[in-house]
Amino acid sequence: MRFKKHVFICTNERADKSKKSCGEAHGLELVALFKKEIKDRSLNVEIRAQRAGCIDACDFGPALVVYPEGVFYGKVSQDDVLEIVESHLVKNTPVERLVIKSFK
After folding, report:
1. Torsion over CA: 93, 96, 98, 103 (sign)
2. How deeply is 42 buried, as exposed, middle or buried, from its count of CB atoms within 10 A (0-12, 13-18, 19+)?
3. What is the mean pLDDT of the chain?
């Protein structure tokens, strides 16, 4: 396995604007912040963060998922990135207040 952890951040934008999408709710900003934090900590050899299309968590967006655990996070803000990196990616402890419970 090339990466120990892989973070997929939803950046999907809906053509139908009647429902908000992760991409419109700062998905790309989250991708940039995760990539920067991972690189700044020299974790980019073991951990990869990247944009993803819809991860089917629209009601909880902005959303992301961390593999191999399959932990889905919802309502993620830019202020949550450092906590997710430190707690989940470094210490292997999911940030429970952001975990989408119905996806467990």
Report:
1. positive
2. exposed
3. 91
